[in-house]
Amino acid sequence: MVNLRKSTIVTMMAGISLSLVLASCQKEDMAVDRPRSAPNAGVSSSKSAVSKEPSYADGVYKATGKYGGLPSSITVTATLDDNAITDVKVTPHATNPTSLDLQRRFAAAVPAVVVGKRIDEVKVGRLAGSSDTPDGFNAAIQQIKEKARIEDSTSK
Asked: What's the pTM value of the predicted model, to 2 decimals?
């Protein structure tokens, strides 16, 4: 009778162990299946988004952006490398002392905001106390993007 109890206990322990192993395998499979579907969906959509991003030729580009009612303007010289701005210079054109001061402060502050960023990510808002000068800067950046854009030969 003692042997029967030992064999029953051993069989029950083996059954419990097997059940735990199978249960943990099912949980692992379920855990593996869930993340696979989410990242795959993200990868495929991000790949298509990357392939649709425009490319820009490396080089130094210059454009004048106009803004305001007068209109006022600034000249932007930007260096592009691998679709990113690696250097930028803003040349003020204002003759009014107050406007010239605002343009100069904007010109001094803008490199810290845009250098190192992809040109498609650059859109400057109010900066260094200047609320209108960013409109001229953004207009000049748009012109630079148009000049530097490389046509996608695969879409033809």
From this structure: 0.65
Q: Quick count: other Cβ atoms within 10 Å of Cβ 58?
A: 13
Question: What's the CA gap between 143 and 76, in Å, rounded?
Answer: 10
- SS3 string, the chain, reads CHHHHHHHHHHHHHHHHHHHHHHHHHHHHHHHHHHHHHHHHHHHHHHHHHHHCCEECCEEEEEEEEECCCCEEEEEEEEEECCEEEEEEEEECCCCHHHHHHHHHHHHHHHHHHCCCEHHHCCCCCECCECCHHHHHHHHHHHHHHHHEECCHHHC
Tell me how crowded residue 93 is: count the other CB atoms within 10 A of its CB: 14
85: left (phi over 0), alpha (psi -120 to 50) or beta: beta
Phi, psi dihedral angles at 124 (to 5 degrees): -95, 140
pLDDT tens digits in sequence order for the chain, 156 residues long: 555 566 666 565 655 654 544 444 444 444 333 333 333 333 333 333 445 778 999 999 999 999 998 889 999 999 999 999 999 999 999 999 999 999 999 999 999 999 999 999 999 999 999 899 999 999 999 999 999 999 865 544
